[in-house]
Amino acid sequence: MRVFREAVEAGDFDAVEALLAEDVVFTSPAVFKPYSGKAITAAILRAVVRVFEDFRYVREINDPAGRDHALVFTARVGDREITGCDFLRVNEGGLIDDFMVMVRPLSGAQALAEAMGAQFEQIAKEAEARSA
């Protein structure tokens, strides 16, 4: 999804948030239960920016029908190099309604989980403010 990728690469997280459906479901690589809703998903994505260093997309894979997309990325969390993929599905209105992230290796996923855990209080506050 070129417009999402360009917004992320430009650091325009207002534009990223505008691409999320109100009922988006975000599946994290670090927790079992998915998060539901635009406010919490936007807050999580903003936190990821605070955690990831040297983030860049390296490949984009698109469904010919236009609903499913995969964006492969590399980043660093502390001293751990990670490779990951954002799997996006868009609804009929062109908004992201399903957002799943997978990362590797395990040591990188663990570093990401720890770093994001440290962000959780701020994520919760941002999500509450955005949904109010």
Report on this structure.
The protein has 132 residues and is of the alpha+beta class. Helices cover 42% and strands 38% of the residues. It has a 6-stranded mixed β-sheet.
Write the layout of secondary structure elements.
Blueprint: H1 2-10, H2 13-18, E1 20-27, E2 35-36, H3 38-51, E3 53-62, E4 68-77, E5 80-90, E6 96-104, H4 106-131
Parallel strand pairs: 1-6
Antiparallel strand pairs: 1-2, 3-4, 4-5, 5-6
Helix pairs in contact: 3-4
Distance between the termini: 29 Å
Counting H and I runs of at least 4 residues, what is the number of helices? 4
Mean pLDDT figure: 93
Give the amount of beta strand, in percent: 35-45%
Query: What can be said about the biggest beta sheet?
Result: 6 strands, mixed
The oligomeric status of these chains comes to: single chain
Radius of gyration: 14 Å
Order of helices and strands: HHEEHEEEEH
In terms of per-residue confidence, which ranges show pLDDT below 50 for 5 or more consecutive residues?
A: none
> Overall 3D geometry?
globular
Please give the order of strands in the largest beta sheet: 2-1-6-5-4-3
Percentage of helical residues? 40-55%
Please provide the count of β strands: 6
**Helix/strand structural class:** alpha+beta
Task: Describe the structure concisely for a colleague.
The chain has 132 residues and is α+β, with helices and mostly antiparallel strands. The chain contains four helices and six strands; from the N terminus they run H-H-E-E-H-E-E-E-E-H.
